[in-house]
Design a protein that fits this description.
Layout: E1 2-7, H1 20-25, H2 32-44, E2 48-53, H3 54-57, H4 61-71, E3 75-78, H5 85-99
Parallel strand pairs: 1-2, 1-3
């Protein structure tokens, strides 16, 4: 079985009231939850695991769609947080479209 774990693009984040300089300089946070899950599954299963960290790879939605289609996963997991909900829904829509 092929499992794909996705940290979606950050194009539509719901940002707080932080000054623009703080938002532009905050950098990337590794998706530790996805990486822990991937490491556990690689160690304890025979499944093929892939992780896409769209923000750190600077992936647009069109490139993300191509990467998902190329891997052709059986199961997809998507990191979901309140401030990224719009991007999560858009990513889930891409996955659904490719699965139809």
């Amino acid at each position: 079985m092929k499992l794909l774990l996705i940290n979606p693009p950050s194009e539509n984040e719901l940002l707080g009231n932080n000054p623009r300089i703080i938002e532009s300089e905050r950098g990337f946070n590794p998706p530790l939850g996805l990486l822990y899950i991937a490491a556990y599954l690689r160690k304890n299963s025979s499944h093929e695991i892939a992780v896409i960290d769209a923000p750190s790879e600077h992936l647009s939605y069109s490139l993300l769609e191509k990467r998902i289609a190329a891997f052709a996963p059986d199961v997809v997991g998507i990191t979901a947080m309140t401030f990224t909900m719009r991007d999560v829904l858009k990513t889930a829509g891409i996955v659904k479209k490719l699965n139809d």
